[in-house]
Amino acid sequence: MKSVLLGGRLVVASHNPGKVREIADLLAALPITVVSAAELRLPEPEETGSTFAENALIKSKAAGNASGLPALADDSGLEVAALANEPGIHSARWAGPNRDFALAMRNVEEKLKAAAALAPAERRAEFVCVFSLFSPGGHHHEFEGRVSGHLIWPPRGDKGFGYDPMFVPDGYAMSFGEMEPQQKLRISHRARAFNKLLEFLR
User: Fold this and answer.
1) Which CATH number is 31's domain given?
2) What are the tens digits of pLDDT across the range 161-181?
3) CA separation for the pair 200, 202 (Å, rounded)
4) Taking the model in full, what pTM does it have?
5) What would the pLDDT profile of 22-34 be if each residue is shown by its tens digit?
6) Which of 55, 107, 114, 190 has its CA 20 to 30 A from that of 138?
7) Number of domains in the chain
8) Is 75 part of the annotated catalytic residue set?
């Protein structure tokens, strides 16, 4: 897997520009040429898994088999303790067919209010990311990262994507949406999963 990957092309199995950009930034220091599934016009597979790991594998396997290249997929989402860890694997679906995350954040906030979760301690949440690295030869590895924090309302910042503007990581006063991309990359769930991937590649 390592010899096939390093020095060659890697498909990032996502059609989400923000996610592709973050992953490409993380991979920038490695001798890898990144191409997205959208650039290759690969279809998006139906995510029928019940966990982040299962959905990540579905996406990486589909992209790897369709392109004939190693593929890296990320499945990630927001788990809110007061909402029984929802939206979880359905985080993107809460944004609707147009991927309207302003709508998704409002949905989360309305459910928190309905649950009387108003104080920061009652609004605990985790961002979760699982990377799935798949080779067309059938080799597969996965790497998980998590970051804990609490949710705020109204959302703040326009630098991130998804639920970033309403998530404040532990130890910080800024939301992910207010952080510069490089600052977020140092502490995010995606960065933590990527560090495990990097250890594997090294």
Assistant:
1) 3.90.950.10
2) 999 999 999 999 999 999 998
3) 5
4) 0.87
5) 888 888 888 889 9
6) 190
7) 1
8) yes
